[in-house]
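Long-time lurker, finally posting.

We've been working with WD40 repeat domain-containing protein (Desulfobotulus mexicanus) and I want a structural starting point before designing mutants. I don't trust myself to interpret raw outputs, so I'm hoping someone here can both generate the structure tokens and explain anything notable. Sequence follows.
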Amino acid sequence: MKQKTISKAEWDWQAGRRIVADLNQWKNEYGYMEEPVIRPDGEGAAAIVRTDEAEYSIVSETGLWEGRWDKIWKLNYGADQRLSALVAEMGTWSMAVDDETWEESFDFLWTPLKSSDGSHIAASVQQGRQYAAVLNGVIWEKTFFAINDLAMAPSGDKLAAVVQTVALQEGDIEKFQSGCFTVAVNGESWHQNFVNLWDVRFSADGQHVAAAARSSLYDYTVVVDGKSWNQRFDGLWEPLFLKDGRVAVPGRSAGKWQLVVNGAPLWSQAFTQLWQLVEDPVSGRVAGVCAPEFGKWTMVDNGRVWGLRFGDMVMDPVFSPDGRRLACTGKSGHAWTLACDDKAWDHRFEQIWTPVFSPDSAHVGCRVRDKGRYAVYVNGKAMVSDLDFACDPVFSPDGKLVLIRGVGGEGGAGKVFREVLEIG
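Top reply, 14 upvotes:
Generated this for you. Predicted structure of WD40 repeat domain-containing protein:
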């Protein structure tokens, strides 16, 4: 049953902490329990539990589901707070959503995807040694010899994936090199085949699809709506649709990487490495992770390279909603930190997750793990620490409050809580 997404403005933003579930009780009752998931609004939690020998179900703050299955996989919440998981019974797989299973079952399901509002759910599917995709329980009419890299349009009503359209026997090198793979959109495949493709992406309006491809064993190009660029490269990373409809991609030629837009370099600089492109949501400028020289990692924003350097890795670039700020995570040695506007936080951690900006762009936070314990930081300061587990922070619409979702801490080990704190 489809459930209306409740906007963040309608969530409970009253300051304070509440316990929403007790994992200790679930463990005591069922014995076996997998890692829990916490609702986006923090109002509940759920976990996979074993109800009998080789029989599993899902328990949440509202109780135990009626459904019983042989296997359960990929339990998670959508933005509409609906809880779903891939479930198997008697060797066939389906999707269970709030204790209701799709009418159709399949030989296998994997890579579940959800739309941003949670209303659409999809997965890759195997049925009778053929492969396709399924959206809201309805499988594509056309099937293929293989499928991978499933992608969903932002609206959730379209799917695209790399598919194999030519049967390929083991060791058939000539046929492989001639091209057996293409992209299918809602089951309709492009007319041109390639050696292989990856990083399938939709445009913001869902009307166009791009992918990186190998046109031969040694030549790489970008394909948009089935048409290849004329340009060839030595290597490519993930393409990015820009606000104006153009496609940007990091491309490698003569041993260096450049930002290429619709086949032509956009910046004059070339890098030892360039990838993970992001776009300013307001002005449309492009930024990405780069290595100006070997072993030195940083960010490049609209062609300007940050002065900050990390020795091992930079990941997860994110623009603020107003486009004026840029954040990422960085690693030197065994320590991670968050960097924003070319400045790194003072604290270092064993693990760090993608930065999150407040809607007003004034604050940036993330969850971290250090010495086996979790914490949530905002603007370089710990909001909550020494937790058994934590989720990413969620900021209130006005940016003045932050919602913390986690396990343990002041409420006690095994207690799932939600806490709203003012940002000082």
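Before you design anything, note these points.
The longest helix spans residues 23-30.
Residues 106-228 form a domain with the Methylamine Dehydrogenase; Chain H fold (CATH 2.130.10.150).
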